[in-house]
Specification:
The complex is a heterodimer. Chain A is mostly helical. Chain A contains eleven helices and two strands, in the order H-H-E-E-H-H-H-H-H-H-H-H-H. Chain A has one domain: MetI-like (MetI-like fold). Helix content of chain A is about 75%, strand content about 0%. In chain A, a hairpin with a 4-residue loop joins strand 1 and strand 2. The model of chain A has no long low-confidence stretch (mean pLDDT about 90). Chain B has a six-stranded mixed β-sheet with strand order 6-7-8-3-9-10, with helices on both faces. A four-stranded antiparallel β-sheet of chain B has the order 2-1-4-5, covered by helices on one side. The radius of gyration of chain B is 18 Å and the shape is globular. Classes of the chains: A mainly alpha, B alpha/beta. At the A-B interface, helix 7 and helix 8 of A face helix 2, helix 3 and helix 6 of B.
């Protein structure tokens, strides 16, 4: 083996090793949760209220709570995020203002989620008097993922070939028609990626919902957007650190973690499926 | 008013500080093919983009002078740019079909111009695809994605797309430069056919192509329109030494 081939093979084998380590860590975590958690998973666990000081029963209200928060935050953040990205990429020319907005958005994405939680409490819970509620929690979570949605949508729009826009203008289409009929359909699969990423974050974050919506124990379903709910990540935290009997509720905690992971996984797969179908329709050569 | 199809008067064009076109005066008549030739960066594509105001989309563009299409000052304040672009079709260097079906590609121009009548759209789409000499190849797969077509077919689809809105003038920016010789031949035959109905201005790097398909040829060099005349005259008896050098391949 020549020197060159040798250094090449050392390099590639170390890359291979590193990626193998990363992937196996992921599998170990996943396997651990599955093995520990799958034992408690049954129909009752998924569909009944917690009981006996959260050492028995199920996590139904927490599942519903998390689904409510996902839906609420997306209804708020997705349209606003997509529309601002469209404005930024399709209308706003390169300027100081645009750079400023972009820098702010990037900074916003880097703010720790607990800060969003505090802000949400101050603004939505106290100032706007929503109280601890689904709407306060959803808005807080929505604010947190807004930068993610804006950035991924912007990237999606940027990746649409300019020759398509030019071709559309050349046929007498207005800018709005071009965006609606050409740019958005092409960018749609990639915009969905932003949605998937943000759903993942919304369902997993504990800090933003801590002071705005999540409740320790509430064995009933919400009846409106001003109700409090239990949520999976917070429930998990409660079960492991501050339940009535932490040791006895440990299996419930693993079960909750399992459900949370599965929920995110299923939503990702679903979004990927939609992405694949939509992508096929607008495939570029 | 003038009865020329296209008329350019004292046109100077700048991209920021770059003087891209220098005092251009040019006319083109109806139902003729004019070819713009010249080395890269000579301004021929810039002039082409003046005719459907595509330069408007480029930041830092300014110009002085006048451009008329069918006697109408197309940079006048009351001009609706979208209407203008509907009446001046354009075909680009790289085929740029939309990632939609073949049918929807051709129907696009009609739809964005507010036409909803299904039968009318169907009729126009069929006519345009036939005119673009593509019908036999795609008639059974109008609902298939345009992305499945070959490069040459895609370019003819783009021509069909431009024809569907019945433009008064068709601009072609090196329409065959990304295609193989057989596809190029088909595009050239098509241009020859279309001349009976349309006025065409084509930018090309291929001198033989200009010689084969155009009635008039304009030679550009460093932002100047050096000379323009009947194609035959330009190729056999050019007045300017620069044209002669370019035609005979001494530079460019």
């Amino acid at each position: 083996m020549t020197r060159k081939q040798l250094s090449q093979s050392i390099a590639f084998n170390s890359f291979r090793l590193v990626s193998l380590v990363v992937v196996s860590i992921l599998f170990v975590i996943l396997g651990f949760i599955i093995i520990k958690g799958i034992g408690v998973i049954n129909w009752e666990f998924l569909t009944s209220m917690p009981k006996d000081g959260m050492t028995g029963g199920g996590i139904y209200p927490a599942i519903i709570g998390t689904l409510c928060l996902i839906a609420g935050s997306m209804i708020f953040a997705f349209p606003i995020g997509v529309l601002s990205a469209i404005y930024m990429n399709e209308y706003l020319k390169e300027s100081f203002l645009k750079k400023l907005i972009r820098t702010m958005t990037n900074n916003l994405a880097g703010i720790p989620s607990i800060v969003f939680g505090l802000f949400g409490m101050a603004l939505f819970v106290n100032t706007l008097k929503f109280g601890d509620s689904i709407i306060a929690g959803s808005l807080t979570l929505g604010l947190m993922v807004l930068p993610v949605i804006i950035r991924t949508t912007e990237e999606a729009l940027k990746s649409v070939d300019d020759s398509l826009r030019i071709g559309s203008y050349a046929l007498g289409a207005s800018r709005l028609q071009t965006i609606r009929k050409v740019v958005l359909p092409v960018a749609f699969p990639n915009i969905l990626t932003g949605l998937i990423l943000s759903i993942g974050r919304v369902s997993g974050e504990t800090a933003p919902i801590l002071f705005t919506v999540a409740v320790y124990f509430l064995p009933k379903l919400p009846s409106g957007i001003f109700d409090q709910v239990m949520a999976l990540p917070y429930h998990l935290y409660v079960l492991t650190t501050s339940g009535t009997n932490v040791v006895e509720s440990r299996p419930m905690a693993y079960g909750t973690a399992f459900v949370l992971i599965m929920l995110v996984l299923i939503l990702n797969l679903l979004a990927n499926l939609i992405r694949r179908i939509a992508g096929k329709k607008t495939k570029m050569n | 008013m003038s009865d020329h199809k296209v008329e350019v008067k004292n046109l100077d064009l700048y991209y920021d500080d770059f003087h891209a076109l220098k005092n251009i005066n040019f006319t083109a008549e109806a139902k003729t093919v004019s070819a713009f030739i010249g080395p890269s960066g000579c301004g021929k594509s810039s002039l082409l983009r003046m005719f459907n105001r595509m330069n408007d989309l480029i930041d830092g563009t300014r110009f002085t002078g006048e451009v008329f299409v069918d006697g109408q000052d197309i940079y006048a304040k009351n001009i609706d740019v979208d209407e203008l672009r509907k009446s001046v079709g354009m075909v680009f260097q790289k085929p740029n079909p939309f990632p939609k079906t073949i049918f929807e590609n051709v129907a696009y121009g009609l739809r964005v111009n507010g036409i909803k009548d299904k039968h009318f759209i169907e009729k126009k789409v069929t006519e345009a695809i036939k005119q673009a000499a593509l019908w036999d190849e795609v008639k059974d797969k109008l609902k298939k994605s345009a992305m499945e077509l070959s490069g040459g077919q895609q370019q003819r689809l783009c021509i069909a797309r431009a024809l569907a809105v019945e433009p008064a003038l068709i601009l072609m920016d090196e329409p065959a430069s990304a295609l193989d010789p057989i596809s190029t031949g088909k595009i050239e035959d098509l241009i020859f056919e279309l001349k009976n109905q349309y006025s065409i201005i084509i930018v090309t790097h291929n001198l033989q192509q200009a010689g084969r398909i155009s009635d008039f040829t304009a030679f550009f060099y460093m932002g100047e329109l050096v000379e323009w005349d009947k194609t035959k005259t330009i190729f056999t008896n050019p007045t300017d030494i620069r044209t002669q050098n370019y035609i005979t391949g001494r530079f460019g």
